[in-house]
Design brief:
Organism (chain A): Phytohabitans maris
GO molecular function (chain A): ATP binding
Structural class of chain A: alpha+beta
CATH architecture of chain B: Orthogonal Bundle
Number of helices of chain A: 9
Bound molecules: adenosine-5'-triphosphate, magnesium ion
Shape of chain B: globular
Structural class of chain B: mainly alpha
Number of strands of chain B: 0
CATH class of the largest domain in chain A: Alpha Beta
Protein name (chain A): ABC transporter ATP-binding protein
Order of helices and strands of chain A: EEEHEEHEHHHEHEHEEHHEEEEEEEEEEE
Strand content of chain B: under 5%
Number of domains of chain A: 2
Keywords (chain A): ATP-binding, Nucleotide-binding, Transport
Strand content of chain A: 25-35%
CATH topology of chain B: MetI-like fold
Oligomer: heterodimer
Strand order of the largest sheet of chain A: 6-7-8-3-9-10
Distance between the termini of chain B: 25 Å
Helix content of chain B: over 70%
CATH topology of the largest domain in chain A: Rossmann fold
Order of helices and strands of chain B: HHHHHHHHHHH
Pfam family, one (chain A): ABC_tran
Largest sheet of chain B: none
Largest interface: A-B, 31 and 24 residues
Radius of gyration of chain A: 24 Å
């Protein structure tokens, strides 16, 4: 493959898209910096503006305002076909009237590569994707996974500056999806290319990405590594979208004390201004008989509603005094004594809790 | 299940017979050696075909028909295809309005249209001219292009175009290498229908006829009212054969491209 490549650094500033005649913008003044060679995932629920953002980067959709720069160059006047971005679509978008070979050779022919060179490049990339021997097949003679591999091969064969992927694995079943996730991750490592990946699957985002940008209602709610976002979600929306969380909306009475219902909890580090909601991940919560909570832990009474085996761990569902539901996951042997209907104390170390902003209206 | 299938085949076969048998009677009649429409013909001869070739009006009419159809087809193709692309870009309401307007020649009684065209073309001095015939029949042929092309386009996945653009194709190249091949069967069907619509159109051609602008169907109509002899059967046979051949050829080609494109029916 071509080694002479300049991978893309993308800078998005105040990017906005409003589809006429709607009032609500689909993408609402977002700022995002994508480092060269980074694997970034745009994660968010349906309709949060991920595809619109990706399509503006690709040049399919004209921004209402704002700028997108590639390696400091403003892309406003650059049409899609001159951007040199690879794109993978959810429905593959393979050309049905062309063979696998012609599909993958298509971008090379647009670039007027010599015939010989085209043949070698296509052969190499098909071999890399385990598609050797399928050159003369038509897309409808391939399985879903093979089609998606052809689509990936076609999108990277011309050494694009950036690879854009819009839910590329969404149509595949779970097993295949996991296999292809691993392949996409390996591909990113091998190519060293900037990947912008759209998904609404949080596990997929966590597994694949260097950086996750969480979208909500047309805005970027938070950007960070999967670990950062999980441990310190920043907003209630992110806490709920990325993994599960037990949520307690109380108030800070002094820098070291948080008051929820009639419980006074210790605060390990003082929260940022505006972060008023306390969240705890289920795996940080332990369940105790009444009165046996370790010294220094925060706790609340709870009623166990269900206990389910998830293989390695066991999940205990509970109802808290405010009526909210929550859960704790723990090693199976730690949960053997917990029975549905039982009153318990759910407890966690103060260092395991995080403070987040409440949901914006 | 099996019985149901064979009775279905029988029914389809019967309907096919019902539709085609009257036409098939034409052929022996056109080969008749008699001078009337006698059936069965008293003997066989090729005299009516010879007549068709040798009599100047008949020859001229056949040539005119071919010329007109050859001009109507590309005109209707361009207008109908562009209209299909345009309609798809409109909002729902405008699209429906535009579509209904464009296919109105199929709905409005033929004679009314013909009269309207005749009246207008008289004023424009287009009556009795080849150009007039071409224009009038193009209006009638556009829906026959619009409908198959639009159907094909509605089944066309726009992300194909996006993919081509992202792979470095200019919009024009993307159209030429991806969109066009995928909607080609629709355009081909449109071309056949447009050709046929023009080639055997009578009413407009009848009103707009003039010296040098008399088509085969008009010539047949005129000859029936004047001197009815089996020349008309010979002409009809040729009409049927030309039209069937065109349709057949395109259908064969269509099945092939469909298999190639991996598109199965619509
Ligand atoms: N072409 C369009 N015209 C009008 N509104 C649109 C258009 N495309 C998207 N929208 C609207 O913009 C908003 C964001 O859509 P977008 O497709 O970017 O969401 P998404 O995050 O990709 O969602 P999903 O996970 O369902 O793909 C939605 O409310 C959607 O209805
Ligand atoms: Mg989307």
């Amino acid at each position: 493959m071509d080694t002479e490549r300049r991978t893309g650094h993308i800078e998005i500033r105040k990017l906005r898209k409003r589809y006429e005649p709607h009032d609500e913008p689909a993408v609402d003044d977002i700022d995002l910096t994508i480092e060269s060679g980074e694997f970034i995932t745009l994660l968010g629920p349906s309709g949060s503006g991920k595809t619109t953002t990706l399509n503006m980067i690709a040049g399919f959709v004209q921004p209402t305002s704002g700028t997108i720069r590639l390696n400091s160059r403003d892309l406003a006047e650059v049409p899609t076909h001159k951007r040199n971005f690879g794109m993978v679509f959810q429905n593959y978008a393979l050309f049905p009237h062309m063979t696998v070979f012609d599909n993958v050779a298509y971008p090379l022919r647009q670039r007027r590569l010599p015939r010989e060179k085209t043949r070698t490049l296509v052969g190499d990339i098909l071999a890399l994707f385990g598609l050797g021997g399928m050159e003369s097949r038509k897309p409808d003679q391939l399985s879903g996974g093979q089609q998606q591999r052809v689509a990936l091969a076609r999108a990277v064969v011309f050494s694009p500056a950036v690879l854009l992927l819009d839910e590329p694995l969404g149509a595949l079943d779970r097993k295949l999806r996991q296999a292809l996730q691993a392949e996409v991750k390996r591909l990113h490592r091998d190519l060293g290319l900037t990947f912008v990946f759209v998904t609404h699957d949080q596990d997929e985002a966590m597994f694949l990405s260097d950086t996750v940008a969480v979208f909500n209602k047309g805005r970027v709610e938070r950007v960070g590594t999967p670990g950062e976002l999980y441990d310190d979600p920043g907003t209630l929306f992110v806490a709920g979208f990325l993994g599960e969380a037990n949520v307690f909306a109380g108030s800070l009475v002094d820098p070291t004390t948080y008051l929820w219902m009639d419980r006074k909890w210790r605060v390990a580090g003082p929260p940022r201004a505006g972060d008023t909601v306390l969240v705890v991940r289920p795996e940080k919560v332990r369940v105790f008989d009444l009165e046996s909570v370790p010294e220094g832990w925060n706790s609340t009474p709870a009623v166990v509603t269900d206990r389910s085996h998830l293989g390695a761990v066991c999940k205990v569902d509970m109802t808290f005094p405010d009526g909210a539901t929550g859960s704790a996951t723990m090693p199976t042997d730690a949960a053997v004594t917990v029975r549905p209907g039982e009153s318990v104390l759910a407890a966690w170390e103060p260092g395991a809790q995080a403070f987040v902003q409440p949901e914006r209206a | 299940m099996k019985a149901g299938r064979s009775s279905l085949y029988a029914l389809v076969f019967l309907i096919a017979l019902l539709v085609t048998v009257p036409t098939l009677f034409l052929i022996p009649m056109s080969l008749s050696s008699g001078t009337t429409f006698q059936f069965p013909p008293p003997g066989l001869s090729g005299r009516w075909y010879q007549n068709l070739v040798e009599e100047p009006e008949w020859r001229a009419a056949a040539v005119t028909s071919l010329k007109v159809a050859a001009m109507v087809t590309p005109l209707a193709l361009v207008i109908g295809t562009c209209a299909a692309f345009g309609l798809l870009r409109l909002g729902r309401r405008l699209r429906t309005a535009g579509f209904t307007t464009l296919i109105s020649p199929l709905v409005v009684p033929h004679i009314l249209l013909a009269l309207a065209i005749y009246g207008t073309f008289l004023k424009l001095d287009l009556s009795g001219t080849l150009q007039g015939l071409v224009l009038g029949q193009t209006a009638l042929a556009v829906p026959f292009v619009l409908i198959p092309v639009l159907t094909r386009l509605q089944g066309y996945d726009r992300s194909m175009t996006s993919a081509a653009l992202s792979l470095g194709a200019s919009p024009l190249t993307a159209f030429r290498t991806v969109t066009l091949p995928l909607i080609l069967p629709g355009i081909a069907a449109g071309a056949v229908f447009a050709f046929v619509a023009s080639f055997d159109e009578l009413v407009v051609a009848l009103l707009l006829q003039g010296p040098g602008a008399t088509t085969l169907p008009v010539q047949m109509f005129n000859s029936v009212t004047e001197e009815a002899n089996p020349t008309i059967s010979a002409a009809s046979t040729i009409l049927v054969v030309v039209v069937s051949l065109v349709i057949l050829l395109v259908q064969l080609g269509w099945i092939r491209t469909d298999q190639k494109a991996g598109l199965h029916g619509h």
